[in-house]
Each structure stands twice: as structure tokens, then as C-alpha cells.
Amino acid sequence: MGTIEARRPRRSAGRLIRLVRFSVGLVWSAARAPFIWLVILQLSSGALLAGQVLAVQWVLNGILSISASSDAVATVSGAVVLLVVLTAATAIIGAVQTSLARYVGESVARAMWQRVLDVSTTVGLKSFESSEFFDRLERVRSSALTRPFLVTNGVIACIGAIAAGTGLAITLASFHPLLLPLLVLSGLPVLLTSRRESVLEFRFTVAQTQRIRRRQYTSILLTGREEAKEVRAFGLAANLRARFDGLYEKYLEALRAHLRQRARYSVIGQFTSAVVLGATLLTLVWLIATGGLDIASAGAALVAVRLLASQVQTLSGGIQTIFESGLFIDDLEEFIALAPAAPGVLEPATPLETAAIDAKNITFSYPGAASPAVDDVSVRIGAGQVIALVGENGSGKTTLAKIVGGLYPPDAGTISWNGVDASGIDARTVAASTAYIFQDFVHYAMEAETNIALGRADAAPDPARVRAAAAAAGADGFIEQLPGGYDTLLTRLFEGGTDLSGGQWQRLAIARAFYRNAPLVILDEPSAALDPRAEYDLFSSLRNTIKGRSALVISHRFSTVRNADRIYVMADGRVAEEGTHDELMRRGGIYADLFTLQASAYLSDAAPEHPAE
Prior knowledge:
The protein is α/β, with parallel strands linked by helices. The chain folds into three domains: 13-336, ABC transporter type 1, transmembrane domain (ABC transporter transmembrane region fold), CATH 1.20.1560.10; 351-433 and 518-603, Rossmann fold (3-Layer(aba) Sandwich), CATH 3.40.50.300; 443-517, P-loop containing nucleotide triphosphate hydrolases (Rossmann fold), CATH 3.40.50. The protein is built from 21 helices and ten strands. A six-stranded mixed beta sheet has the order 6-7-8-3-9-10, with helices on both faces. It has a four-stranded antiparallel beta sheet with strand order 2-1-4-5. The chain is elongated and about 115 Å long.
């Protein structure tokens, strides 16, 4: 963050060229034809402005000569018609430019979203454990996505201002050479004060990133479908509204202070510019009074001064936009650079046939954590074996499972698949060889068949495989009873959809993992939402269901893992014990204590309060 805050909008020809090249290159690739037309129209608009000034002079000359010439009325009429045509053409071009600019803006936004999504979907999962990554992502989403087009708009504005200004300057200089340098000077104050405004804007955005993210999160709590039940059950609305309003109020306080600072610089620049413009107009009056300009030329010069002043302001504003956006584009480019190098078009990865996995001396820490989540852990999963990880909350079970499946790279230690170091295997192959059932799995607002077929999203859905996976997970019965069967939209967020119970969603997630047909299945609390009978059915048939595939099962319910080939007991990020259920029970350690404690609770609940006499 310190390096971001220390940035300054360095104004140099090289930086200007780099910013323009990046932004125009992006717009060129996103909407080439509309962009070309925008530039053509901008140049045309500039030429029309110069033509309007000459038409005004023609009109004034005609008016002043009406009494002296019988042809003056026809001359004035022709000049007026020309002025009307030029004015109408300028207005029409402006309207067309507005529509084109809107289309180009949306095209650039899509192109930038594609780049941002390339980063967010390809960076390592560990990035999502870092608040700094989310800060950068938020800044990119809220500011930097629009900045390249703003720079391009600035470039287009500068092109138009230079084109129009050149024509107007030549016209104005033809009236009197003294007017032009005075008018050019009027744009310098704005250009100078805009430097400080650019720094203030970027600093404000960086400083408010965390507050904006918290406010957005609170708004999700207040408006989200999943959160709505708990907000009402606990009466959280007033508390969360107060938090939301407080965060917004602090943001507005900071915004008021920021806008006051910007306004001071803006007032100084604009006031000084207006003074110089006033000096130019006084010079024009002086020239008229001393006979340096005739009345018609003076009238046309007055119009030219006003139009050229506007173009100078446009040029200054365009340059300010380019440099102010430059800081955000730097941030955007750094974010885009986080994405791994694209390997080009690849065929879908082919999963390995078997999964015999050795994890040796694995250590892993989350960003900013004081101690490792997994510390020097070794586990082995034999081909076709069911291995269980048990332990209390926070013991490192889920983290270890994600490391084994390739979602987190270990800080130390090695993972090998079938005797080959995973670092030498294509990461896509490891991913294709692993099927996850997460405890907090996603409820996809899509059709039931699609929900399951997403298990192998790189290929077209196979209806027969979908139904086989659903049957293996015990989901086929309730899916076939849905209004549209496997074509039923599973959500109430959209018209015509329906929702499932928690247990049904869990069976669907299990079916998705089975559909993936990977040699390693990782099940993280797969029965959390299942009723006891469904849980018993799932685990009693697990070996038959996975059909020779390896499985890593995480569960707090010891009854579900007692038949595993090997059980690893984790505590404080380490393996405290390992063995079969019988071996661990005989050892009388942590596993035996936890198993007995859990079993006694069930037996106590099952025992009658008053035994029969």
C-alpha cells in the first residue's frame, strides 16, 4: 500500500505516450470501427467550428453592407443558411458521437472485465485469502475498469481540440496576431492545477477502498437472499443499517473534505484562466476602439475567442484526464500482471487413471497468519483407499485437503502423484484428477442437469452420465419429481425456478463430484446436511460408489469414518495420531477420547429416561 500512496502522476512525454498507447490499443482491439469513426467525427467537428466563425464574419459583413448594396440581402441570406447548416451539422455530429462513445465505452468495459476475470479465475486460491488482493480487485472494479476509455476519450478530446483549435487559431490570427498568444495562456493555469487534483483523486480512492468494501459487504447482508432469514431471525436489520449508514457517513465526510481540496485547486486554475481570457477580450475591445479591427472582423473574432477558449479548456481537461487516469491504469496493469502467462489454446486436460498420493512434510501458512495452518504434515493415500481426516475445528483438515488437491501450493514439503512429484505435473492434469465436495459448496442457479454436469464443465453434458451420477448420490429420486425433471431451474431468484432443501442440495453437490469421474475424491463434511439414514446410505456404499477411486474424507462425525482404510487425527496443524479405527481405539489417545465422547452423547440421547422395571 505504501508504494501506491507514494505514486505521483509523473508528467513526461514518455509517460503520456505510454498511457495513450495502452488505452488506444485497448479501444482499438475492443471497438476498432466505432473508434475510427469517433476520431473522424471529432476532426470534422473541429473543421466545422472554424467554418462557423468565417460564416459569422460573412453574416456580419452582409448586415453592415445592406444599406450600401442591393445584393447584400442575398449575401446575408446565403451566409445565414451556411451558418445554420454548419451549426446543424455540428449538433448532429455531437449526437452521433454520444451514441458511438456509449458503444465504445461498453466494448472497452467488456474487454477490461475479460482481463480482470482472467486474473480472478487463474490466480492461485491463496490470493483470495489476502485482504490486499481484494483491495486491489475492488479498486480495479470500481475505478480502473473505466479509466482506459476515459484516457481514450481524453485523447479523442485532445485530437478534436487541437484540430478545432488549429483552425480557430489560424482564423483568429488572421484577425490580429496579438489575440492568439493571450488565449493560449488562458489554458495554462488549469493544466498546472490539475496535477495536484490528480494526486488527490488517486489518494482518496486508495484510502477509501477498505471502507467501500465494508459498506458493500454490509449491503449484501441487508439484501442477500441467503442472509435474509438470519437478519430477520436475530433482528439484525437495525444494527446492520446503523453500520451501513455509519460507513456511508464516514465516506461522505471524507468525500466532502476531498472535494473541498479539489475545488480549491480548481477555483484557482479556473479563476486565473478567466482573468487571462478577460485580458484577451479587453485587448479585443482595445483593438476595436483604436481601429485595429473592423466591426465584422471584431464580431467574428469575439466568436472565435469564445470557441477557442472552449477548445483550450477541452485540451487542458483531456490532458488532465489522461494523467489522472494514469495512476489507476498503473494499478490496473499491475493487477493484470498477476495472471499466470496464458499457455494458448489447450485441449481439455485428461485426468490420471489412478491416484496414489504421498504428501511429505507439508507446511502452509495463510497470508498474515502468525503460525502455520499445516505444520510438517505427512499423509499417504493409496490407490483405491478411503483415507479420513478428523480433528477439532481449526486443526488444519480442510487446508491440508486443499493442498493435496492442488488448490494451495505448500510453503514447504512435496506432493507426489503415483510416485511423480506434482511440481512436474501439469496443474490442469492435477485439477482434472480431483473431484471436490466442499462443505460450503455453491448452489448454482441453473438447471438440475447443468448443476451436475458442471463437474466436467470442459465438455458437453452427457445426460446418461448425469443420471448415473445422480443415482449414485441418491439424488435421482427427487430430481425426477421436480416440475421439469432434470431441466428444472434450481432457484427462486428467476422466473419459473424452484429450490431444494439443504440435504437435496448436498446430494446434488455429491453427484457433481461423482460426475467428474476423477481418480481422487475429496469429501469435506459431505454429510453435514444429510439426515442419519441418508448419511448411513452414503458412507455404507461409498466404496462401491467411488469404484476403485481414492477418497479423502473430512468429517466431525466419527461414525462415518470408522471404516476408512486409515485415519489421520489432526490437532493444531499437525498429525497427532494415525491408524485404523481399531488401532486408534486401542491406543486410547485423542481419537478414542473424541469417539467415546461423541458416541456417549448419542447413547445418552437414545437411552430411556425411566428404564423399565
